[in-house]
Amino acid sequence: MTVLASAVDVTGPEHTAHRAVMLGRLAELDAEHAKALAGGGEKYVTRHRGRGKLLARERIELLLDPDTPFLELSPLAAWGSDYPVGASIVTGIGTVEGVECLITANDPTVRGGASNPWTLKKALRANEIAHANRLPVISLVESGGADLPSQKEIFIPGGALFRDLTRLSAAGIPTIAVVFGNSTAGGAYVPGMSDHTIMIKDRSKVFLGGPPLVKMATGEESDDESLGGAEMHARTSGLADHFALDEPDALSQARRIVARLNHRKAHPDPGPAEPPKYAAEELLGIVPEDLKTPFDPREVVARIVDGSDFDEFKPLYGPSLVTGWARLHGYPVGVLANAQGVLFSAESQKAAQFIQLANQRDTPLVFLHNTTGYMVGKEYEQGGIIKHGAMMINAVSNSRVPHLSVLIGASYGAGHYGMCGRAYDPRFLFAWPSAKSAVMGPQQLAGVLSIVARASAAAKGQPYDDEADAGLRAMVEQQIEAESLPMFLSGRLYDDGVIDPRDTRTVLGLCLSAIHTAPVEGARGGFGVFRM
User: Fold this and answer.
1) Which residue, 36, 277, 422, 525, could crosslink 308 as a Cys pair with Cβ 3.0–4.6 Å?
2) What is the pLDDT of residues 176-204, one digit of tens each?
3) Residues in contact with 301: Cβ distance below 8 Å, sequence separation at least 6, in sequence order
4) How far apart (Å, rounded) are the C-alpha atoms in residues 491 and 306?
5) Rounded Cα–Cα distance for residues 191 and 180 (Å)
6) Does position 446 have pLDDT exceeding 80, yes or no?
7) What is the pTM of this model?
């Protein structure tokens, strides 16, 4: 009775056209991901391999359990900036000896693995995910420390990386560092502040100041090995807990450390789950190219939840927001999905009630964004849209169950907030290539600026230049359109990655599994004052 029926004609011209547009966007996305995979480029990759070293993702692959997935996070970090795509570090979640871990790996082919401002932001986001979900952290270290030309943007906020490691340890979340090469200056504190540290013979170099700096500071002559080599730290300083002969040996030792952690999930895995009734491939043709064209989000829900089984909540009330209960890879979830884009008072109140119910049931929430924001206009202002929108945002802000957000279409204005955008601390937030997010749509924003400028000219009794206005509007629309696109937003870490729609169920399943490593508990009251 509750299995969703699909009305999509997957052989029809509309679906075919939408699919073609999505495939084009995915090809563009693949090209940008390839830049991150290429690291520092062929020259530096060849040099790195010539030293007998593995690449960052090869190290991760050897660390993980065979044939298990790796959910890479923020692969487009630094996109559109002066720094390489990927920000010279790989972060993600993978399984080691049956334990889900947060893994970070410096990419030494990019400026020796030096950290730039986006590296810092990406690493801090990874630590945040580890702490919220109680995931052990494994740092695969090979970095020359801060990228010195950009030190003014790294040095002061960068101390949070070391603070995070100590707080993770204090919270009982294990931290492990495997040092593959240089770990100098501030980078020396990563192995220094981790619970477990592995160093590699003739490869690991850990010191606060290398031989040149020591010579300048004290006049002392020294060499890498006596100053910070693996054998010295294993035999003399005691910084190294484990001494490895080579990279595979170091990764094998890291796996053994994880096997002995006795780290347990707060919630057991639910076991096999029934797949959706409809193919994930069909998701490519659901979202129209023009986001002003409405689509039924139930078509998305039907292709990601177990058995396409969905118990809708208040289906006749506030119909432009779909809410209901389902399971996803066996985990219970509540789903909030925008239908016609605009959030009215009824939708806002419905959402607030639904979020409260999810907290009473300790049920994680999945938000599927396609909203232009809360409705404006005299009728709606008089009807209380501000207080009702505030009620929804209050509920989202004070909800304690984990939130997962996926931007599948538009995510504009305060609707982005009410649907748990980045500022509202979703455990994970991903975007489809079709998504757009900004304070409002490009045409609306340009139009508002034009109206304000025209009114200003009239108030001063000055003539208005319509030709200049048309040029300004076109320029603003182009700028806002570019700044609304998912690759731009992902480059600034406003999401955790842009994903292929066909992977949505898998990505959400991996996230739900990671989330359930920590206790899942809802708020019992404590929602603040709801204006009625």
Assistant:
1) 277
2) 999 999 888 777 889 999 999 999 999 99
3) 4, 308, 310, 322, 324, 326, 335, 337, 368
4) 32
5) 11
6) no
7) 0.94
